[in-house]
Fold these 4 entries.
Entry 1:
Amino acid sequence: MRLHSFLCVCLLGIVCGTISGEEAVLVPREVFVGDRAQLTFTVSGLELPKGTLIELPVSEIVSSFDATLESVLVTSESGRTTVSVFFIPWKTGTLALPSFVVEKVTVVPPEVRISSIIEKTGRDSLEPPRPPLLVPGTTWLVYGYIAAVVLVLVVSGVVIVRFVAWVSADPRDRRSARYARYRTRILLRSLKSLEKQACTVPEAVWYGTLSHAFRVYLGCVYASNPSLFASATRGEIVEQLSGLGALVGALVGAVPCVQDIDSFLLRIDLIRFSAPVFSGRVDERLEDCALVRALAERIEKELSA
């Protein structure tokens, strides 16, 4: 097929004549092997009607091992015929593109020069591999991102573990722990308020408030009833605590703790009813607040055991 096309081109060139291209322009100006290039030149001896546009089939042009033709366009405008050849060169130096026939006229493209990278750079081997260029500070940014991810994973793990433990726990235990935090928070809030009033409130009033806060706490602990011991005497409180066997649980038989409660309530009653006037014993009031706080910690610890 190639031989047949070549013979046809030669015969047409002999019969119809051969025209060489003039005023050639190569785009880009410097072309290397493997680059896509465009060669545009004018043909003065080829007259075509104005506005003619012809795209020659590349398959009918004689192929060449030196270049690959992609397309050939022929246009006619203002009495001039222009040919544009799009190709990819495969050799350096002077390159002669294959000729082709347009309207029974053989057109020979002008020769072009293909540059050599080796001659231009003076290197005949590939560059060694190089690491990617990093913007200054990128390394620290990556380390910070990794640290943030690790922190998020650790926090997520802790939250998930606690949530699973909370879900798998007995609902009664969850309610008990929640109520324990509630009653302890109420007692500590009352103690903090009393500490601020230690210098301004008379002893009888101050210790009456302390006794009420402690009685409310004991009622919440042993019967979930804040008003259980609100109006009871010290003896009634001790008696009821001793009889709450099924409700007190771990505290039943804890005689030292019950005795400490009894002793503390007795001390409060003695101060309330023997010294109704403010005497300025601020340090003792703060110590009594600390004693109530310590008793509450012992009670909660024994209940949770």
Entry 2:
Amino acid sequence: MAQSSRKLPQRKSAIWQRWLAFGVLVAGVVLAAGCGQQSPTAPSSGDASLALDKGDTRIATSDMDATALLSVTVPDFDRWLCEGTDEYHWVIVIPGQEVQFFWREIGGVPLGPQTTFRYGWNIQDFADDNDPGWVCRRGAGARYQQTKVMAFWDGLHDLTIERWDGDQLLVRATFGVWVAPMLAREAPAVRN
């Protein structure tokens, strides 16, 4: 009877060691930063109740009408509920990986004629409507509630999404898309 060895050949072992090192690097960053992702919780004011269904972000509310939320989704990554104007979340990708963001309003008492959105990449001055990072002016409709499919090869790229009701800013959330560096591939050792 032949015995099988569970030891990986030297060539495959080196490949797995590089992937393991990369995995440890990413896990360390995610744990250290908390990945910036908060579990959806009920707002602290009032006796509002919040229920999040995994298949689709849905809110069950009693007194939550006064709380404006923004539901942001990145398919195959995660989903966030954003409240207030100082939220920051991390999205970690590998070089060249495509991402697209989608968002919609949840709750809130309308303060103006309609809810509008705007978004941009690497905004320098949020108060400046002419900042070159803004992709669009405020508007309503599907065009204002999603980004184009983007792929980044290195660095950190901040996406800022704003929800407005009339002339009042209700929600501003920023998502740092960080491209995790890949380890350089080593040349295989030559055996004589």
Entry 3:
Amino acid sequence: MIKIKYLFPLLFCLPITVFADFFYTAVMEKQTGYSEQIWVSKAKLSHLHRAITDGWKEGYAITDISHAPRKWSVVLSLGTQVEKQLYMSRRLIAEFDGATRYYLERGYEVVNVENGVGEWLAVFQKGGSYRDTRMHISRDFDEMEKIIAARTEAGYSLIDMESAEGEWVALFAKEVPFKRSYYHIAENWDEVEQTIDAAWEKGDSVLNLEYGANGWFVLLATYPQRHIQRVIRNKSFKKLRNTIHAGWQEGFRITDLGEGRR
């Protein structure tokens, strides 16, 4: 794990902002191996259950779950090599941590973490591209940086990060499809774009864009071969969906959905 630079302490409580600054984001990529993809959005997490279970029956697997104001979204993909999958949610972080440990002890890997409207959610699976996964939680970002450094020293890679309710939640894996992952803290979206452009110039890829109050956590990775990506930002959910549908026609697939402010 390589840290480019640390610019400022992120605050965790959502500030009072105008929705004019709000926008949706999506990362799309060509080298995912996914043959087909479905994207479903509902007002409540429970309303996604039918779409998820129907997708599992047809061989799809969850490849991303995200939350934006008044909207939960799930991305289901074919061609993931995932053998079995489930998701779990809890309101209290301590209960969420305990439930995650329960599934890890039973041979599952934790591959995605998300928070929305006071609910913590994790996706677990058997099979797929991540092995020997771990989750760490801290209320202090300086402490989380130490955890990341220690896990990196032990041969793990950071694969996902979530910041919400005053908590940092990080996922690590020992077996990953890339050579290394690293991160950058950006104060605004302009800096996010500069960071992504610099990564692409080197042949690296975007794994995850996470917005915490007052800043962005940009997770990047170096793959054995260059991946073709595009990052989409739009204030309109409808226009975002139209752009993603156009990307699907060009062979791109969603790898990360998010939301944030400039």
Entry 4:
Amino acid sequence: MSSRTLGALLASVALVVAAAAPGSASPGMAQVRAGVGQESCPQEVVGPDGGWYKVEDLTSVTETVAVPEGYDVDALCYKAATIVRYGADFVVNGDGTVTVTSTVVNKRGLPQAISHVSLHLVAAGTGLTPNECVSQPAGPITPSSAGWQLYGAAEFVEGGLSISSQDFVAGGISAITDFSLQDALNLGFEADTTSVEGVQTVEIVLTTPEGDLHYNRIADNFYSWDPLLPPNPGVGYPYVGTLQDALDTAGNLAVTSVTFVFSTDSFNGVVLTSLSFNCREFTFDTNVSEPS
């Protein structure tokens, strides 16, 4: 083979290699993206409890991304050039967005633009916590006390409130109130239910504009038929949780009334001697005059 022929063959091979090299596409040929086959930030199907939510096609060094409604952000990942950064610092804005700035630099020391961001979402909380319980004075409740109402088979007796029930027809007493969920503390009552036979319900019900919260003294938590608490993954009541759960789910709702409820399947009765809520303990007596 002549040197001229060999030179022509090598030149042809060089042209083919050059045409196939990434980043050297000729006009009309799609250029290969640098990110193909490289690591990227995670993406998931976001459920009620959250997950990784990805926002793509970003082009700036500093990006502001909208947070889906109902979620907070507790972690962030972004990619700039070929670098993936987890645990990046970000700013939570007051308009439902977060802002992150790339700290990735190229060989010239210039910052690299962000190509995509993944937000780790968690179910939004309210930032509210129960207030500290400060004891307040409370006078004895009598038949003439304003804002209190008996219902069912209930009557004042000496030293307390007698309540009877049969066939789950409830009886008890209700009070009009003006405190909020943050002050729904010190919930309790004194009543002898040890001699009650059969199935019974003994509870305190907090009524709010959005629904009722039923307090279970034994479990020291609440249940509800309304979405004021997290969904119950097990059997039983649809929503179950603590006071903190109620604040996180529903916010600092007004408590417009508090009700003591007693009901049984067979005829039984109890005597309620005290009822506590909002850091106040109320007693019941027919022989005590109204406090001045």
